[in-house]
Amino acid sequence: MDLHLLNKEQKIAVEHQKGPLLVLSGAGTGKTRVLTSRFVYIVKNLKFDFNRIIAVTFTNKAANEIKERVKKALDQNIESPWIGTFHSIFAKFLRKHAHHVGLKSNFNILDSEDQKKLIKQVLEYCKIDKEVSESIYLNEIQNLKDEKIFPQDKSKILKYSSLENIDEIYNIYQQRLIEINAVDFGDILLHSYFILTNHKDIQETHSNYIQHILIDEFQDTNLLQYDLIKLLLNNNQNLFCVGDDDQSIYAWRGAKIENIINFPDEFNCEVVRLTKNYRSNNAILEAASSVISNNKNRLGKNLESYNNEIPEQKINLKSFYSQEEESLWVADNISRKYNDQETFGILVRLTAQMRSIEDKLIKYALPYEIIGGPRFFERKEIKDVLSYLKLANSQSDDLSFERIINLPRRGIGEQSIKIIIDHSRSNNLSFFESLKDLAQSNKLSPSLLSKTQPFIDLINKISDLINKTSLEDLGIFVIEESGYLKMLENEKNKLKQIENESRIDNLKELVNALSEFENLDEFLEHVGLVNENQKKTHQNSIKLMTLHAAKGLEFDHVYLPGWEEGIFPSSRALEQNSSKSLEEERRLAYVGITRAKYDLNLSYASSRYTYGINNYSLPSRFLSEIKNINLEETSYIDNQNDTNRPKLLSSDNIALSPGKKRMMEFLNKHKK
């Protein structure tokens, strides 16, 4: 290991002798190098056995990277059971002590599908209303485990959760897991915590054996993870934590920023700040520091650029009249810069922003991929509503029928659906025609007829409206009259509520997409072409993702659209009216800005057409916090008669773009 390759701050951290240390590693300051160098230093210089060092990461990729770097530096294989994610490390621990929680050492770890099957059995046993899905109960049980709440702690369960019969379901679910000798991911940590807190001999054996503990991404730890680590500390308290409080953006997933904020006081220890950034130019770092400095709940640091190869250039701030103009500018601007040697990232606050951007990237025939989630028209809620439209447009669409016959849940079971399908095959009918025939010929039980007749009436009504109303109004009718919107709005699970707010935004964006077409066939053809185009891959595609998915990534060119009040910060954060939620939004802004190496483009629209209404908005407060920065601002809001404007912002003039050739190749290919 070459310590001379480390800068002064990094070297101080790596050469720390003993006791706890917090390393505040700002964006792009080389935290992985510090973490691996620290591991090697402990082995080579402090003479500790690497098998007695715990190195915890949050992804298998990060764990493997540490292993490879350490292996290269030490010139020996590193197969320590103590290097990995929280779950991989404590799964090994749990296998050694499984009998203490009623398990055998060969227990199975259930994947998400197996967990759903098990919770479904429990819900049926408890006769729970199926209007509440299996995943809701699973998420709530996982939340309880992250909060260190055991199934026997009924009062704590009921205080934490308002979900119906959650105490009984949690208890029976855990009993079933023990009976089948299995655990879910939450159990791996909770069982380990139980063993370490209830068996002092085991806790002392392990804490005496472990000499050093290293934690990556410390700001992302939750309550249970942090307490597990403290249980493995010995009297030397050799705890080396690397993290960045300014990048703590997963509170909604259980992460506790208090873990890193309170660490210096809790352990009365030194804090080493890594401030030399090797990724971004000074203008970008100044913008990031200017925004994040408005947060009060932080330990504080200021980044400085330490890469002379990164060119200095102004940050661009663009303002537009509408989101369509904003999206068109993003695609147009990328098209003018695009090449195979540089990287491009478009980072949005809400998934609903993606649809318009995807549409424009396709029009410019720019290769792109969604990171961290499905593309717009592949999202579940979008496919669900599209299935209503498809079935109404073509009543022989059996795939759409199967998807929505019981969505939202109508109490139509698998056996009832089998009756419909069998009748269709016997009479050479589509599934929907089969259902109508059974209903009209009085071959359905009164109970089943009462459940299916409203569905038949709804599809017939949608079919009737297709040529009588605008696609925009048709989309709103389907979303509301199907009960789909109500299903999302009535969610009881806290985590699902947050997810459903995003789904509702996506449905509103679907209505916007429908408003751009005159007839349903044309729109459905567009969706089909988009989905077909998405199957193509490109070596250097433009990356489109949410800000949450962007953490840890970097790009030469970064675009941050939608910097408006109600989008960023989100309406949810504004409604909560708490400094805590607003500060998390500001940390998201910090993460987004610091993804850029040298070309950063911020933008906002003064109005967004949503769900048939033109909503006007104010620029994000975060923009006003970027002060005294090398910023170039251009507004297209008040220049609608500007002769230069159509060249950038009219879809009729896309041909003026350098992307014309790619676009024409794409269109000609699909005309054949």
Beta-strand percent range: 5-15%
Count of DSSP H/I helices: 31
Mean pLDDT: 88
Q: Spans with pLDDT under 50 lasting ≥5 residues?
A: 642-664
In helices, the fraction of residues equals 40-55%
CATH level-4 homologous superfamily of the largest domain? P-loop containing nucleotide triphosphate hydrolases
Largest sheet: 8 strands, mixed
Word description of this protein:
With about 675 residues, the chain is an alpha/beta fold. The protein has four domains: about 5-90 and about 190-275, P-loop containing nucleotide triphosphate hydrolases (Rossmann fold, 3-Layer(aba) Sandwich); about 110-180, Orthogonal Bundle (Arc Repressor Mutant, subunit A), CATH 1.10.10; about 285-375 and about 535-670, 3-Layer(aba) Sandwich (Rossmann fold), CATH 3.40.50.300; about 380-515, PCRA, domain 4. Helices cover about 50% and strands about 15% of the residues. The chain is built from 31 helices and 18 strands. Strands 11, 12, 13, 14, 15, 16, 17 and 18 form an eight-stranded mixed β-sheet that branches. The chain has a six-stranded parallel β-sheet with strand order 3-2-6-7-1-8. It has a two-stranded parallel ribbon with strand order 4-5. Strand 6 (about 210-215), helix 11 (about 225-230) and strand 7 form a beta-alpha-beta unit. Helix 6 runs parallel beside helix 9, helix 19 crosses helix 20 and helix 20 (about 430-440) packs across helix 21. Mean pLDDT is about 90; it is low at about 640-665.
Concise synopsis of the structure shown:
This protein folds into four domains: 172 residues, P-loop containing nucleotide triphosphate hydrolases (Rossmann fold), CATH 3.40.50; 73 residues, Orthogonal Bundle (Arc Repressor Mutant, subunit A); 229 residues, 3-Layer(aba) Sandwich (Rossmann fold); 138 residues, Orthogonal Bundle (PCRA, domain 4), CATH 1.10.486. Helix content is 50%, strand content 13%. Strand 9, helix 14 and strand 10 form a beta-alpha-beta unit.
